[in-house]
Known about the structure:
single chain, alpha/beta, 8 strands, 49% helix
Amino acid sequence: MAKTRSALRAALRLDGVDERLDAAFWAGLEEALVASDVGVEISAELVSAVRNRKPADRAGVRELLAEEMVELLGGSDRSLAWSGNGSPRVVMVVGVNGAGKTTTSAKLAHWLASEGRECLLGAADTHRPAAQRQLATWAERMGVEIVGGEDGADPAAVARDAWTAANSRGHQVVVIDTAGRLHSSTHLMSQLEKMKRVLTKVAGKVDEVLLVLDASTGQNGVAQAREFSDRVGVTGVVLTKLDGTARGGVAVAVERRLGTPIKLVGTGEGLSDLAAFDAETFVRALLEDEPG
Length: 292
């Protein structure tokens, strides 16, 4: 999130030299928020809310801005529905090409293993052999079972087979890695809908549909989230690539405009680079001073 932090720090100019809270300052702060993908409307609302609270100086502005952003992100249920007894919980991992779905699926399996939950991976991205090989490599490294299919096989059939295998082997969770698809492609989104229908039929329900969203996609990420939510009922977002290059403000925009909670964040390519989303920690990281 270094790009966001740099832009906001520049707007706040917390250098002890200029403490004026004039019109130019407020306009610059709003522009910095827009540039960090918070969105035009939300940025204007945040600046107005902070300004109305009449901070004494720019340090006060930053503190009040943090409070307003945390408040905006507050109240969401970020719990993950993969605990409990009985048949395996079902987690579908969806998103566009390049967002990091396959890596995120592996990270989820690693997360589950660290909590002592037996997990099986379903490699349903049958249109991209490299994705299946990548997931198989991760699975072997973690000692996690995986079920895949032939190149070009019906993804819904692979997902069904993965759940059936997980159920017969006593696993607690099955994580289904799906093919990347443009949110604007009706045909590909229909395939995803079919997969969810099939999983719902065999498992009773799909417990989580996690949308993997590349933080650097900016406001296009809001459009992605909206379309996936409309088609397959996204239950939460995994925000990826918050490793120092992304702007990150899209998290605020997605939650405010769509009501879809950010549940997890990916901060790197390693198996352990996945964390629960915490609004206060996230906002403080956006607005904190860069190390000197």
